[in-house]
Amino acid sequence: MAVKSDSPVIRLGLIGLGGATNQMLPTLRSHPDVRIVAAADTHPDARDGFTAACGAPAYAEVEALCRDPRVNTVYVATPHQWHKEHALIAAACGKHIIVEKPMALSLEDCDAMMQAAHRHGVHLLIGHTHSFDAPVRRMREIIRSGELGPLAMINTWSYSNFLMRPRRPEELDTSLGGGIIYNQVPHQVDMVRLLGGGMVHSVRSMTWALEPGRPTEGSHLTFLQFEDGAAASLVFSGYDYFDSDEFHFWVGESGEQKAPDAHGKARAGLRRFADAREEGAFKARAAMAVGLGGAPQPASWHHPHCGVTIVSCAGGDMRPSADGVLVYDRQGRRELQVPRGPAFPDKASVLDEMAQAIRTARAPLHDGAWGMATMEVCAAVLQSARERREIVLRHQVPVRD
Ligand SMILES: NC(=O)c1ccc[n+]([C@@H]2O[C@H](COP(=O)([O-])OP(=O)(O)OC[C@H]3O[C@@H](n4cnc5c(N)ncnc54)[C@H](O)[C@@H]3O)[C@@H](O)[C@H]2O)c1
Predict the structure, then answer these.
(1) What's the pLDDT tens digit per position in 269-280?
(2) Which ranges form a coiled coil (predicted)?
(3) Domain formed by 10-129+344-367, architecture
């Protein structure tokens, strides 16, 4: 592993010290270009936990963190509704910005974030999503190289317990950013856009809210048509019935090896709550209890993924495997090993991309325009389902490989 330098490229301030940051911590700690220098969170316990774990100051106000001259980049991992405001504060203070998915809850907010970053001359990067997964990037390289011929179809399907885990009321309200369209579909869309070159022409979708008492989208079936004639199907179902990890070597989303007998456990676990308030309070306590130890590091792990994904070109098919990419072509089936980052779960390429942008002064691939284009697809999924028609897109941008 590379040794951390005394003046790392990314001197990071963390905004929001909950589950996302905790997942990111092992990568942040091991990445040679990153040093965590401060944090901000509204909750005093989160701030105390951070200072104890990282030996760095934690602010109650986001503005105070963004004014700290030691910080040159922030990681915005607050709940969705804060992404725009926190990105705007950071941009005004001249800090580069990594913002968690979803970029924001409306295209107007995405545009405001993009304009602010442009005005203040800072990089804006939207991540993490599964388009950063190393096997997905390897498949993009293969498509670009032309070795399997022109791209035709991308099919990606994910079945999980997403909607049946304990949730706060706003996580079950689409107008507040709840449900799968704002939380899981950005992963699928970002990955499919990267593989397909970015330029989605149109979206046709159906969505469903299938569980009484959980009145938000828990499943969707979406058809994307790319401008160059390729197409994609995206399926997500979060009701804790079938688990598509069964078709992915029983490796979970983060790359962990999973037990094959956990079906229905999330759903059964919800029975312990008398009502939505009790469930929401449990979720809030659980987020706090995550602390800032970082995700436990298993003895062995695999690449992260977001379900079963099969890419079809004229000369063959391919899909992510547990440790790389499986290619099926005229010579048969072969596995290409793809190296992983040093920490679990592997999110190193988000930081690689920002470090590269700062070093070269060139916008990252997952910049504001890219993030806004992904959110345009997600918004079109909701609109298409509501209006039962195909939606033609206007804000798509190509992959800058
Ligand atoms: N890319 C991924 O795989 C991934 C995984 C998990 C979460 N996320 C994203 O990260 C974001 C946060 O999710 P989470 O699960 O960590 O939530 P969380 O509730 O666990 O943590 C949010 C933290 O932000 C703090 N906070 C809330 N409002 C604040 C404010 N105004 N100012 C400062 N701090 C504030 C809270 O006290 C809490 O500590 C969401 O947008 C989510 O979609 C992404």
Answers:
(1) 999 999 999 999
(2) none
(3) 3-Layer(aba) Sandwich (3.40)
* Nearest Cα residue to 294 out of 39, 13, 29: 29
What mean pLDDT is predicted for residues 265-270?
A: 96
Q: Whose CA is nearest to atom 33 of ligand 1?
A: 41
Q: Residue ranges per domain, the chain? A: 10-129+344-367, 131-343+375-392
**How far does the centroid of ligand 1 lie from the alpha carbon of residue 203, in Å?**
29
- Cα separation of 231 and 221, whole Å? 13
- Topology of the domain covering 131-343+375-392: Dihydrodipicolinate Reductase; domain 2 (3.30.360)
Rounded distance from Cα 15 to ligand 1 centre (Å) = 8
Is the pLDDT confidence value at 101 over 70?
yes
- For residue 170, give the 3-state DSSP assignment: helix
Token pair in block for residue 174 = 């689409």
Q: Looking at ligand 1, which residue's alpha carbon is closest to its atom 27?
A: 78
pLDDT at 53: 87
Answer yes or no: is the C-beta of 128 below 6 A from any ligand 1 atom.
yes
- Would the CB of 46 count as within 6 Å of ligand 1? yes
